[in-house]
Amino acid sequence: MNKPDMNRRTLLAAGLGMGVAAAFPTRLLAAENLVVATFPGTWNEAQTKVLAPYFKKRTGASVTATIKLAHDQVAMLAAAGGNPPFDVAIFDDPQVLDAVKQGLIVEYPQAKSPNFKELLPQYQDPWGPKISMQVIGIGYNPKRVKTPPKSWDDLLDPKYKGRVGLTALNSQLGIAFLVELNRIKGGTDTNFDPAFKALKALLPNVGAIGANLGAYATLWQQEEIDIAPYNFNFVQTLKGKGVPVELSIPETGAVGWRTSLHLVKGAKDPDLAVQYIDSSLAADLQTALEQAPYSVIPTNGKVQLTGEITRTLGKTHADLAKIRTVDWAVINPQRGALIEQFNREISK
Amino acid sequence: MAGGSADERGEWRLALPLAAFFLLFFIAPLAVLAAWSFYAATETHTLTLAQYAKFLGDRFTLGILWNTLWLGVEATLVCLVFGYPLAWLAIRLTPRWQAALLFVVILPILTSVVVRTFAWIVMLGSQGVINKTLIAIGLIDTPLRLLYTETGVVMVLAQVQMPLMVLPIMATLMRVDRNLFDASASLGAGAWRTLWKVTLPLSIPGIVAGCILVYAACVTAFVTHTLIGGARLIYMPLYIYQQATGANDWPFAAAMSVIFMVAVLFVVYLLNLLGRTSKGQIYG
Amino acid sequence: MARRIDADALSFGLAIGGLASIAVVFLIAPTLILLITSFTDSESLKFPPSGYSFRWYAALLDAHQLLDAAWNSLVVAVWTTVLSVILGVTAALAIGRSRAPWAKALDSLFMSPLLLPALAFGFGALIYFNSIGLAQSMIGLIFGHTAVCVPFVLRNSIAALSQLNPAMQEASESLGAGSLYTFRRVTLPLIAPGVGAGSFIAFMSSFDNVPVSLFLSDARTQMLPIHLWEIIETNLDVRTAAASGVIVVATLVLMILAERFAGLTKQLR
């Protein structure tokens, strides 16, 4: 009878002990903590390895980053009412319009952000500073594809049968690719039939469709695909990990959009949030992010362009400003319908 | 017997705490879910059957439901084919080996499903272990595409949920009187005959229990569906999640959840029925 | 006649043995391969690894977000288990040995979370908790997890109770002991291993839970499985393999402890 007795007591005691310990705050660190949103891939890594330590040195606070695509962030903020799950949002151009319309973000308090005025004028947006530009092109495996592809039509080349990759439309990469394909094939911003026709023609070549950016990166790493649309930054980051991938800008030109940080309405730590955003505008931080393997295009005028950016995209800030963008005000409302059409016609 | 009625008499009150908890935190959420399935939109709360019509009237969405239910059947069958022999063998081992085997069987269910599914991603790629092995032993020349295919999902589901099949069958087989097998053999029946005529019929309760648990787990295995299935294979859990959090269409997602629950319960009911009729045929 | 039976037994043995061996390999291989891969020194998840190193395990120490998520999951799992044991054992005492119809009905009700798609319940819980102000909170998570984990405690406690000889209880009562004393000194110690096994499974089930945490947790209350899934879906990160390795080893250690103190494998047969 003694043994079970002892078991019960030790179990009870252990349970109580853990229970008491568990009553303490949910964070291991007692220091202040800011909750922000970040993008997958390059952004998440740059956030963890460069931005968070920089921010911690500046303010002593740590950062918890949740990895969400821009559109999902808008949905989460809208659903959360006045109680947002994160204080800093990261959006691409299209989401800023939505967020402002739905009252999810507040005007950026420029007075509290000393680094704001160092940004080039086109990046100083009252709703939130632009922290970078993202550019898409044709990603390819240099081991298998010996000459860099020069046109989006190369994807249709029968020699790539089963080796072409596509990404789901929920990411900006997918939408931007669709819009560019549409433009080349003669469609307009309100008529996407040419794009879908081209995609259907592409289907026999498609080896895999990445459900998300992590799966997409895995496809490249496992060498399941040889050629596919891809982001400049993500290619550089994967290259840094030894994955065989390069980016080629097609002759029809690069397509890009801008990425920005925003203060969320109802943030729990607005001052800390502004300091975080301000940190990402600093010249020294942007210089650090401009290096390989992130190669994030800087928006602070004091940062010199070096390395891969100058080789592939443009030698000066003026060159970069010329990269074609998209009329998001027209495209964005069609997003849901486009994704639905993609799922139905292409995905199966 | 006096003891029996004492149990019934005084102790029903002990069930109250859990019953109250279930009312507040299990039944209430499900009721709210059902209520929301009748709303017109996330903001407008007028009652309508529109959400159900939207789902049931669309080939695409019905296809997702069907694919999910069928996926469960495939995975359950694979589980049964491999799990039954394992259970059969397990009960014939000495207690020490049996405990060791039980460990091997139980460890997977206790390890996070994310971890186990992630392990498979490493194995299923073109350069993964399975392809490398098959090429090495000469069965195939070019790597099989397993990742992001239904075959891959079935394989991973079967492995991830296999313990749920093995344990109930083992439990049932262990309760069977060993003498029955000896009697069968001494009457001249070969091993196969004993299996068909004696062992299998007696293990039906375990098989049914295992199939039900595995089926319920497979159709709702969100993580496995998304990590192994990719974008081309959309199943109900992912679709519900997308509609709930990505599109913020709560009424539609709620209607889908209700339809999904009813469908799974229906299949479970069928499996139960199958079990009972088989038992009826054996025991008359 | 001897030869005919030999061929029969041989084919049977090969079939059963073959299928069973494949099953065992299937059960162990992925976890084993993952463990080996987690010791790679490169940035990619190739098997076999090009070189070996502890670097990814070392990297875990810096991954403070991962550690936070692990801590949150631990806290929720502990409270869930405590709540499940309190609610589950009391309910088991009520319905475990009763043959009344209400007992059977309650039994089916309390077990139903195992059959219903937990995802649907998780979503329902989100909507419900939103309206009562518990959304995205640790308390909400604990309640949600308890609903889906208490069946394990209940099932194992009922099983333990059914194996209990009622004579023990009667003897204690006939010697003048009150029912609380009898419960504390006679019943509880005897069903402790069963309750222990059930709580262990409830604990692991809560720690590993995905469908409920998916809806009820957010960035401020991150849960480990969701965080891991998020990383896998968005990045190529070998740290996930190292984190998985730690989880596997921790589970193994806990299982051995549960076996030692509660006879885990005996309870599950």
CATH fold call of the largest domain in chain A: D-Maltodextrin-Binding Protein, domain 2
- Biggest β-sheet of chain A, characterized? 5 strands, antiparallel
CATH C-level label of the largest domain in chain A? Alpha Beta
> At the fourth CATH level, what is the homologous superfamily of chain C?
MetI-like
- How many distinct folded domains of chain A? 2
| C-alpha Rg of chain C (nearest Å) | 23 Å
Could you walk me through the main structural features you see in this protein, from its secondary elements to its overall organization?
The complex is a heterotrimer of chains A (348), B (284) and C (269). Chain A has helices at 2-22, 42-59, 70-79, 93-101, 172-184, 193-202, 213-221, 232-240, 270-279, 283-290, 307-312, 317-321, 328-331, 335-345, and strands spanning 33-38, 62-67, 88-92, 130-140, 164-167, 206-210, 227-231, 246-248, 255-263. In chain A, strand 1 (33-38), helix 2 and strand 2 form a beta-alpha-beta unit. Chain A folds into 2 domains: 29-133 and 257-311, Periplasmic binding protein-like II (D-Maltodextrin-Binding Protein, domain 2), CATH 3.40.190.10; 134-256 and 328-346, D-Maltodextrin-Binding Protein, domain 2 (3-Layer(aba) Sandwich). By secondary structure, chain A is of the alpha/beta class. The radius of gyration of chain A is 23 Å and the shape is globular. Chain A has 14 helices and 9 strands. Chain A starts with a helix and ends with a helix. In chain A, the strands form 3 sheets. In chain A, strands 3, 4, 7, 8 and 9 form a 5-stranded antiparallel β-sheet that branches. With 284 residues, chain B is mainly alpha-helical. Chain B has a domain at 67-233: MetI-like fold, CATH 1.10.3720. Chain B is globular. Chain B starts with a helix and ends with a helix. Chain C is mainly α. Chain C has a single domain, classed as MetI-like fold, CATH 1.10.3720.10. Chain C contains 12 helices and no strands. Chain C has helices at 2-37, 55-62, 64-95, 101-111, 118-132, 138-162, 166-174, 179-207, 211-216, 224-234, 239-262, 264-267. In chain C, helix 1 (2-37) crosses helix 11 (239-262). Chains in contact: A-B, A-C, B-C. The A-B interface holds A 71-72, 75-76, 78-79, 167-168, 170, 207-212, 215, 218, 222-224, 336, 343-344, 347-348 and B 60, 121, 125-128, 145, 147-148, 226-227, 229-232, 234, 245-248.
